[in-house]
Amino acid sequence: MTLSGAGFFSPMHDIRAIRDDPAAYDHAWAMRGFAPQTAAILALDEALRAAQTALQAAQARRNEASKLIGQAKAARDEDRAGALMAEVDSLKAAIAENTEAGARIGGQLDELLSALPNRPASDTPPGEDESGNVEVRRHGEPFALERVADHVDLGAALGMMDFEAASRMSGARFVVLRQGLARLERALGQFMLDIQTLEHGYVEVSPPLLVRDNAMFGVGQLPKFAEDMFHTTDGRWLISTAEVSLTNLAREQILSEEQLPLRFTALTPCFRSEAGASGKDTRGMIRQHQFQKVELVSITSPEMSEAEHQRKVDCAEAVLKRLELPFRTMLLCAGDMGFSARKTYDLEVWLPSQGMYREISSISNCGDFQARRMDARCRKPGEKGARFVHTLNGSGLAVGRTLVAVMENYQDERGRVAIPQALHPYMRGVTHVGGED
User: Fold this and answer.
1) How confident is the model at residue 70, as a pLDDT?
2) How far apart are the C-alpha atoms of 286 and 293, rounded to whole Å?
3) Which of 301, 362, 364, 395 is catalytic?
4) CA of 366: how far to CAs of 175, 250, 259, 299, 341, in Å?
């Protein structure tokens, strides 16, 4: 794929800011496990600017010499005209050489910058992995259950969760849900959408599930995470999250700041190859190649993004609170954040069978990182200059993992699953999955 847009390179990171304070960038990337990068970046930047300067000088002189040729011929000065034409020919070679050098060096700079993650926010804690994450708060107490079965055994006993049938047609990491569990999954998705659209002001979108390279690149999925996604034979990608489609609604746009914030939500299938998760969560529905998720995306001005981040966390937490599921909110350390994020909160729900909290939502503020890759900008009314928007995303929630949490936390001694009160309107009077109500 071609990473560059018009010109020699795309501004994936603020090159002027890197020139002004390279140590700050090296420190930020070191927090994310990267060796110092700015010396190589600045060397390529200097070479690129030199090529651009030489190109501009050669073009200017060629234009000037071309005019002088006409004047020399008008004056019947053939010697002068011949010398100028020879100079123009040599300038054409110099122009071609510097154009090629600029494209080559710009491509190298693109490749280097595109592989570097977002800088952590100032209040993102240091740390190399999940052990450095900080618990912010807890909500609810784990249920006291006399009999604890995991969702796989519960689903099999109910005759409504079939991994073997899915494996016969699709291989590992797929599941077939039937009857009450299929209905409960559908109810959860609709319940989540209703909360976010009717109460929290998100605009529901039905987006494409197949996108091109530039859409994946815009949100930071390419080029680094190509192996984690599914690629079609016609060069498109199956979305790994609706974040891809929803965030790209702002690509190559200049939005009026009066429109902001824009808030979008979608319930879509998501597709992940899980190439980097070999051997992890191979049992059950925790880590699947295909799953449903309600995604929340916001497009804001820079000044609004921190407040919008906190609001988005509240919007995702609201779903777990309504379902009365115990959870905790974690602030991720720099080493555990996603590639595009500058600050991330994870919501982790209690799973009785594992005796631990497991991630059910990540809510991230990406600052202007994705906007730079998508060329998404905003402008204040009456002003000429435009600046990059800030983008935020989060799960509100992962439907499959929420189904797992409901099944395990609401199981009873008879192997049934009680329906949380908030879902009763979506289940048409059904109060339990399995057995007699």
Assistant:
1) 87
2) 13
3) 362
4) 33, 14, 19, 10, 4
Indicate if 272 belongs to the active site. Answer: yes
Catalytic residue list contains 122 = no
> And the tokens for 1?
């794929």
Strands 417-418 and 327-331 turn out to be: unpaired
Of the residues 61, 80, 138, 287, which is catalytic? 287
Q: What is the pLDDT of residues 317-371, one digit of tens each?
A: 999 999 999 999 999 999 999 999 999 999 999 999 999 999 999 999 999 999 9
Computed on alpha carbons and rounded to an integer, the radius of gyration of the chain in Å comes to: 27
Residue 107 main-chain phi, psi, to 5 deg: -65, -40
- A 10 A CB-CB count for 204 gives 14
Q: Does the active-site annotation cover 252?
A: no
Angle at 199 between CA 195 and CA 205, to 5 degrees: 65
The single residue of 272, 342, 373, 377 carrying the catalytic annotation is: 272
3-state class of 362 per DSSP? Answer: strand
Catalytic residue among 183, 342, 401, 416: 401
Per annotation, catalytic residue among 87, 324, 359, 379: 359
Report DSSP state, residue 231.
B
Q: Which residues contact 218 (CB under 8 A, 6 or more apart)?
A: 247, 248, 251, 370, 373, 374
pLDDT confidence of residue 278 = 65
CB atoms within 10 A of CB 44: 21
Q: How confident is the model at residue 10 (pLDDT cuts 50, 70, 90)?
A: low
Active site residue 199: no
pLDDT tens for 37-71 read 999 999 999 999 999 999 999 999 999 988 898 89
The DSSP-derived string for 257-290 is GGGPPEEEEEEEEEE---GGGTTSS-STTSS-SE
- CB contact set of 18 (below 8 Å; sequence gap of 6+): 25, 38, 41, 42, 45
- Has 76 been annotated as catalytic? no
> What are 178-181's contacts with CB under 8 Å, separation 24+?
180/417, 180/430, 180/433, 180/434, 181/155, 181/403, 181/407, 181/433
Strands lying side by side in the sheet with 290-300: 134-139, 327-331, 343-351, 356-365, 390-398, 290-300, 262-271, 203-204
